[in-house]
Amino acid sequence: MSAPDAQPGTSGTPDWAARADHAARSVTRHFGRRLLFLPGTHLAASVRPSNHSPFQPWNYWWQAHYVDCLVDAGLRELGSGSRFDGGDRPSAGELASRVVASIRLRNFLRYVNSYYDDMAWLALAVLRLDSLAGRAQRPGRRRNARLQKSLSPQFESASTDDMGGGTFWSTKRDFKNAPATAPVALHFARTGKRERAQGLLDWLDATLFESTRGLYLDGAWIKEGKLVLAEQVYAYNQGPVLGALLELGGEANLARAAALVGSVAEHLTVCKPDTQGKLVLRGEGTGDGGLFTGILVRYLALAAGDVRLSAATRATARELVLDTAGALWAGRMVRTHAAKGTSGKYDDDGWLVFSTEPQRPAAETYPVGTAVELSTQLQAWMVLEAAARVQ
């Protein structure tokens, strides 16, 4: 199957849904694998190519975003009536459920770990998976309710009045940051704990908001009785803040959301001649940073479709999504690499490899012979799914 470029009957309009399907196949076929060869399990390898040793790097929160991407594909499957990977292969929703169950197995029969941001990302993804299951009229929501029951108290206990509010990053409880506070706020907002969510957003605004750029800093410690800021600005921290502001709504929150979209467009895009004036978001490297831009784009897509925001703000959000997706797609490369797909058969649909940075081609960031990290490929898939939603 060749990579899709345009919709039939249109004059060059990108078919973002088909492109997202292609990215989904590349990730699930080339990174997806059973856990310890156990039937019915499914996780994604952290890097490819890799051996099949059970002692692989374990990135809990990357798997949570894998679930989120599969839910995106599952929602499109419901709309189109066809599976992203063909009729004889598992649906995206089925794979997502396998991943959730396999995370528990891999994490020593529990969902709780030492990082509250990890747990929050999984809890958010599973809320969406439950919604997909409900729309598809599929069983399985009871199991996920147990997951929420396990993780929700963790968020309550980590969101304290120390440092004036916010959520601790880890069980060490020595650092509060946006990576934990923002997704926990969004989880609170989506599970009916609106007051708690608003309190966390207000803490972020009072403590980590940097007014010069209109963006959120990374976090804060108490050192020798004084509040000390971690002043890095990361793309992904802006995303769940934006999502929580939109989820709660209200005049003040929506005004903050609109301002945040503008700040992202001004400060987190790349300005190079080859972008030709487009709003292409910067990339933030490999490892965990390989997910950062994709997470931001997920929530920009929500802003692009939110009629409570001004037409200008929605247009900016949409442009950020589509221009970043266009850059990633233009820079893709195809690797010939036979891999066992989810059906158990060796099948090569053309392994699409996407760049770590939207403004650079994949051939530069992943030269021939180098291993490819899951985080960066999930990011590209996430961005293409967002483009399909705002198209």
Protein architecture, described:
- The protein has 391 residues and is mainly α.
- It has a single domain, classed as Alpha/alpha barrel (Glycosyltransferase).
- Helices cover 52% and strands 8% of the residues.
- The strands form 5 sheets. The chain has a 3-stranded antiparallel sheet. A two-stranded antiparallel sheet has the order 1-2.
- It starts with 15 loop residues before the first helix and ends with a helix.
Mean pLDDT: 91
Our estimate of the beta-strand percent is 5-15%
Alpha plus pi helix count: 13
Would you count the extended β strands for me? Answer: 11
**Largest sheet properties:** 3 strands, antiparallel
Strand order of the largest sheet: 4-7-8
N-to-C SSE string, H for helix and E for strand: HEEEHHHHEHHEEEEHHHHEEHEH
The fold-level CATH name is: Glycosyltransferase
Instruction: Specify the CATH class.
Output: Mainly Alpha
Based on the coordinates given, report the CATH architecture.
Answer: Alpha/alpha barrel
Inertia-based shape:
globular
Could you name the ranges where pLDDT drops below 50 across 5 or more consecutive residues? 338-348
Number of domains: 1
CA gyration radius, whole angstroms: 20 Å
Binned, the helix content reads: 40-55%
